[in-house]
Amino acid sequence: MILLIIVSSVISVIALLSMIFGEAIQDLSERLPGHGESIISLTIILSSLFTAWFINHRLPKIRVFGTLLASTGCLAMACWFFLFIINTGFLSNPKPYDTPLDAFKPTLLWLQCTFALIAGIGLLCIAFKQSRSCTPLPLNNTNDDVKYGLVARVLHWTTAFLFILMIPLGIFSTMIPEGTPYRIEYYVVHKTIGVLIFILVIIRLAWKLYSHQPKPAPGLSTFERFLSTAVHAVLYFLLLAIPISGFIMTSYFGAPTYLFGWELQPLWQSSERGVVIWGVIHKYLLPYLIYLVLGAHILGALKHFLFDKHTKVLNKILG
To answer: Partner of 120 for a Cys bridge, out of 25, 74, 169, 239, CB 3.0 to 4.6 A?
Structure first.
């Protein structure tokens, strides 16, 4: 609890300082008045952090509240799509495509936000089922032989919530036509959360190296253990590679990287060739690769839980 308060306070102070000093040293006239986009970014980050903590809380009623928060996040994403994005007309009339692959973006948004709607409803059902349980969750801050501790779980789920949100947010940002009043605000939120994800993954890796790791769940075959290790390694690589490639692409384009109210200027000169190369990596190669790997990760977890009845696999990181 104390650690969570410290982390959320540090993030809030960084955001506040960026709003105060960022405006003092930079021209932020294109931004929303009152740093609305920075406040939105901070709200999303803190909501993800506290949801990750609540779903792993010792008290069952707070775990129910955490599940309801997770459901609210999924349903909010669905409402954002069905009540706002569809009405913008950008699905049928987006910014001109850079490559033929951009034609798949509306379909991807439809699929992701429909899945968010289904997940939100499913989480409501899970919360109802949880509400009938009075069993506390014995959980230490550090890992043991059977399951991950609170620190690892909060890092895992905060990263997961933010990254899953980043996927449709990033797709829609690239579809907004030039000159749209709120276009830059979407990029501020997208890049701010991207920077935070990068920092979280570094912290996760450091904690993973420092802390004791749980033993593999019983009942898994040698191939399943190898596949699980490989998928996790690729996910860590992609979670680092995507924000890094985004920063490099943005720098070659000559645009700043946003962190709340701060605009971090490019570290090198603009290059059209650099934009093309790193744009292909950041916008197409890595995203489609992570769709496959993340999908395999989620489907593997559902297979163990629903079909193989290896409940201890999921219980290592949740419940």
So the answer is: 74
CA gap 249, 238 in Å, rounded = 16
First to last CA, the chain: 18
Residue ranges of the chain with per-residue pLDDT less than 70? 1-3, 20-34, 219-220, 304-319
pLDDT of residue 197: 93
Read off the DSSP letter of residue 83. I
Residue 24's pLDDT is 46
Instruction: Tell which residue, 154, 301, 146, 171, has the closest CA to residue 232.
Output: 301
Query: CB-based contacts of 60: which residues, under 8 Å, 6+ apart?
Result: 130, 133, 134, 135, 136, 137
- Residue 163 Cα distances to 8, 51, 235, 307, angstroms: 18, 14, 11, 27
| Residues in contact with 86: Cβ distance below 8 Å, sequence separation at least 6, in sequence order | none
Give CA–CA dist 61/58, Å, rounded: 9
189: left (phi over 0), alpha (psi -120 to 50) or beta: alpha
State the amino acid at position 275 in one-letter form: V
